Amino acid sequence: MSTFRRNLARARSHIVFIAALLAGLALVLYLEGLLRNPFVRPPPESPLSLIEDVPMPLSVPGAATEEQLEQARIAWKYFQNNINPDTGLANSANNYPSTTMWETGSFLIGMISAHRLGIIDDAEVEARLSRALDSLARLPLFEDSLPNKAYDVRSLEMVNYLNEPTAVGLGWSALDMARLLSSLEAVERNYPDQAARVDAVISRWELSRLVRGGQLNGSNVVEGLTVENQEGRVGYEQYGAKILMMYGLDALRALHVEDNLTVRDVDGVMVPADTRLNRNQVPAFITSEPFLFDGLEFGFDQTSHRLASAVYRAQEMRYRTTGILTAVTEGHINVSPYFAYSTVWGGGASWAVLTLAGDRLDSRRTLSTKAAFGWDALFDTEYTDELVDGVAALADPELGWAEGIYEGSGEVNGSRTVNTNAVVLAALAFRSHGPLLGVGR
Fold first, then answer.
1. Are strands 225-230 and 215-222 parallel, antiparallel or unpaired?
2. Which of 59, 60, 239, 333 is least surrounded by Cβ atoms within 10 Å, i.e. has the fewest?
3. What number of other Cβ atoms are within 10 A of residue 207's Cβ?
4. How many structural domains does the chain have?
């Protein structure tokens, strides 16, 4: 071997090292060139990065005050008036003997929260849970696989949204089922003696139909045929996904908010919104509802805390700008069509009030009782104190809490519902006991 080749062989490790340095330098220069080159588009900025990354401080836990316990007793009065004595299930609205799976989930969460607060005792909660779970285990199922979207609480028959019996059914809702499953998880964790009943309920259900391709999957009956569809938009979708994943279902794609996240400037606050349409018709709705439930039931994760903070801040900013108390979410109204979404952003505009079909109904924007109590439980600011004070007159010791106050007229939205009274109870229980399904605080 020549002297040159011998020296080359001996130096091979140094040569490799120098080559690696040169390659690294070349890569750095190339990347710098990309960043400086106006004709090369940089990677897109994540929409999440446009939302303020300073979450609202969470409320400080403490024992319930006598005032809060009285507020809880008033909320429980709704349930005393509206739980069917035979089936143990609760009316969705005062004296309206129908329920959805979302509302049934709210009922169970409201009952557990009342027990956590000491409003009802051990014997009562166990007896009421037993009766309700036994009824859920007897529900006729849509296509013998999942609960129908609505039932008559007296007969347990499948019904349409007018509470009229239907042999075929309406289909199932993955979001409604997620809320019910959340409540059943809470029952199982807090009441071990009810575990067998919970298992008897869930074992009848074909849960795998609730997801498809990592997304929430619901269905509707259209001209006699079952049509399945993706369900959920930003906020609602992630709330539902967290729950379904607890049951071993692959809802990971739904959980990942950035896939469909965009942002909108609402009164100077960048709030989360959805790139998709609602029902393929109008831009999707952003309300307080799913963010409240995420915090009250799970305790926020890093992302949901950030998104919830933005949704809350926009409402406080509107008040600071206009002087109008603002706490908006979905809910019942006491005029046709009897349900509306008071949004932070939806249908292409801020503060729009919309029906599910996307029709504007801004005269029914409501200062929501449940949103006021929910935000106050989570963040406990001077503004949330004002919100709770603003709805205080809506408490009726004989009927429970009304939905809210119509912003435009100042008229009381006198609907009384299972959802609102359950959230009042859940919010008050959170103040002293922490998240229902979290590790506590």
1. antiparallel
2. 60
3. 16
4. 2
Enumerate the H helices of 203-284 as residue ranges: 236-246, 252-255
Alpha-carbon distances, residue 376 vs 117, 118, 143 (angstroms): 17, 21, 42
The model carries a pTM of: 0.89
Q: Find residue 404's DSSP bridge partners.
A: 368, 413
Q: Is 229 left (phi over 0), alpha (psi -120 to 50) or beta?
A: beta
Interior/surface letters 31-43, b for 16+ CB within 10 angstroms, e for the rest: eeeeeeeeeeeee
For residue 267 the two structure tokens come to 């009164």
State yes or no: pLDDT of 26 exceeds 50.
no
Q: Name, in order, each residue with C-beta under 8 angstroms of 380's C-beta and a sequence gap of 6 or more.
A: 59, 60, 431
Element (H, E) at 404: strand 404-406
Q: Please give the average per-residue pLDDT across 359-387, as a whole number.
A: 98
Residue listed under structure tokens 């979001």: 175
CA–CA gap between residue 287 and residue 371 (Å, rounded): 10
Q: The domain containing residue 3 runs over which residues?
A: 1-43
CA atoms within 13 A on the CB side of 178: 31
State how far the Cα of 229 lies from the Cα of 212, in Å rounded to an integer.
Answer: 9
Same domain, 49 and 75: yes
- pLDDT tens figures, 72-86: 999 999 999 999 999
163 sits in the region (left: phi over 0; alpha: psi -120 to 50; else beta) called: left
Rounded Cα–Cα distance for residues 375 and 370 (Å):
9
pLDDT tens for 137-189 read: 999 999 999 999 999 999 999 999 999 999 999 999 999 999 999 999 999 99
- What b/e string do you get for 371-388 counting C-beta neighbours within 10 Å, with b at 16 or more? bbbbbbbbbbbebbeebb
Torsions phi, psi for 395 (to 5 deg): -80, 125
Q: What are phi and psi of 212, to 5 degrees?
A: -150, 125
Q: Do 260 and 245 lie in a common domain?
A: yes
Two tokens, residue 281: 């018709």
**49 and 23, same domain (yes or no):** no
Place of tokens 């299972």: 418
Question: How far is Cα 18 from Cα 179, in angstroms, rounded to an integer?
Answer: 61
- Would you say residue 440 lies in a domain? no
